[in-house]
Amino acid sequence: MNIFDFKVEKTNGNIVSLENYKEKVLLVVNTASKCTFTPQFEDLQKLYLSYKEAGLEILGFPCNQFAGQEPGTNEEASSFCQLNYGVTFPIFSKVNVNGENEAPLFQFLKAAAPFRGFDESNISEKLLKMMISEKNPEFLLGDSIKWNFTKFLIDQEGNVIKRFEPSDEPASFAKEIEKLLQ
């Protein structure tokens, strides 16, 4: 099984097979418009513009599971990204990434790329862990997505290569994307 076995919903309700992205390097991201990490949209868009022609696709999946940071409709989430950050990569329908109603895609991604643990020497991760402990302690367990802007890097064959946590800035893993695109 790989990522191409999944189907996802576009904001207009149409179902799309991820098989359409075969032979592309993918970065799958759970997003939110009212999150501390929301400015990462700007850097994600820069990555997209830099590597799109070489075969990178970024797929955004809005999620409202973390402190209600994506409260609007699918269309509002998508237009927010376009209007505020100039996002041109696809934004899909809102999903749950943890729990009983989690999207099968994210269940697969979490199993393929487990949580690496918090880097307590990184102040952002230390603060994030404290916030999760307070607001969503259940997300501290296991390989659950810890917060918005968790990113998964997938190769052209649909294999999950690596998981990047919310505190991992998109520019910090550009070299890993370049390596896959070669």
How would the blueprint of this fold be written?
Layout: E1 7-9, E2 15-17, E3 25-31, H1 40-51, E4 56-62, H2 74-85, H3 104-112, H4 123-135, E5 151-154, E6 160-164, H5 174-181
Parallel strand pairs: 3-4
Antiparallel strand pairs: 1-2, 3-5, 5-6
Quantity of strands, as a count: 6
| Spatial arrangement of strands, main beta sheet | 4-3-5-6
Secondary-structure element string: EEEHEHHHEEH
Give the proportion of residues in helices.
Answer: 25-40%
Do you know the CATH topology? Answer: Glutaredoxin
Termini separation comes to 24 Å
Roughly what is the average pLDDT, rounded to an integer?
93
Q: What is the tally of helical segments?
A: 5
- Indicate the CATH architecture: 3-Layer(aba) Sandwich
Any overview of this molecule?
This is Glutathione peroxidase. Belongs to the glutathione peroxidase family. The chain has 5 helices and 6 strands; from the N terminus they run E-E-E-H-E-H-H-H-E-E-H. The chain is an alpha+beta fold. It has a single domain (25-181), classed as Glutaredoxin. The strands form 2 sheets. The chain has a 4-stranded mixed β-sheet with strand order 4-3-5-6, with helices on both faces. It has a two-stranded antiparallel sheet with strand order 1-2. Strand 1 (7-9) and strand 2 (15-17) form a beta hairpin. The longest helix has 13 residues, at 123-135. It starts with 6 loop residues before the first strand and ends with a helix. The model has no long low-confidence stretch (mean pLDDT 93).
